[in-house]
Amino acid sequence: MFPPEALKQAKDFIAVLRQHPDLLHTPELSFLKDYLVSMGANIPKEGKKDTEKMFESSSEEEEEASPVEEEAPESEESELEFDTTGVVPPESTELPPMGDDSVEVTEEMADKASEKRSEAQAKFSDGDFEAAANLYTEAIVANPQLSMCYAKRAACYVKLQRPKAAIRDCDKAISMNPDSALAYKWRGFANKLLGNWESAYMDLQTSLKLDYTDDANAAIKELEPNVSVRWLCLLLC
What we know:
CATH topology of the domain at 107-231: Serine Threonine Protein Phosphatase 5, Tetratricopeptide repeat
Radius of gyration: 23 Å
Oligomer: single chain
C-alpha cells in the first residue's frame, strides 16, 4: 500500500511540475522525463529558467524572514520509508574472468563453448548457480563472442547475490548486442539488489519493451513505490 503521506507529497510534486515544467529538464529528474516520454507524453521544451527564479525568490524570502542562521531541519527523506527488502551490499569477492575479444575462435573452441553452455543451462535449471556460473565462464573463455553467455552468467550471479559481477556481465552483453532483453533484465535485477531503484526500473522497462517476461513485470511493480518516493525526495528533500 502506498503511504498516505507519500501520496500527498506526490500530489504536491505534480502541482509544482505544473507550475514549473522546466524541472523535468534537470539532470536529477531525467529518469522521470525518460519514463514519461516512453509512455507517449509530450514534454514541453525547456524555456526560461523558472526553477532558478523560484529558488532565488525562495532564498530571498528566507533571508528576510530569518537573518540569523538556524540549524537545518531534518531531511524529508528521513521521514519517507524505502522498502529495502532484499537489498545487499556490493560483493567483495574477485570478479570473474572475461573473454579475450582479440582471440580468433577456432571450430574446436566454438564446439567447447557450446558444450559448456549446454552443461551450464542444465546446472542452472537444477538450481546449482555456482556450477552454472563456472561453466558459463569456461564457455566465455572458449568463445568470447557469445553475448548470450555473458547475460546468462549474469543471471547466475544475481541468484548468488553478486550484483557487481552481474552488472559487469550485462554491460558486456549489451555492448555486444544492444537488443539483448535478457541482459537488460538481469542488470535490472542486479541494480535492484543494490538498491539502485531508478536504474533497475529503467533497465527492466527496456527489457519489457524488447521481450515481455512475467518476472520483470512483477519486479517493476515492486520498484514503483521506491522510485516514486525517490523522485519526491529529489525535489522536496
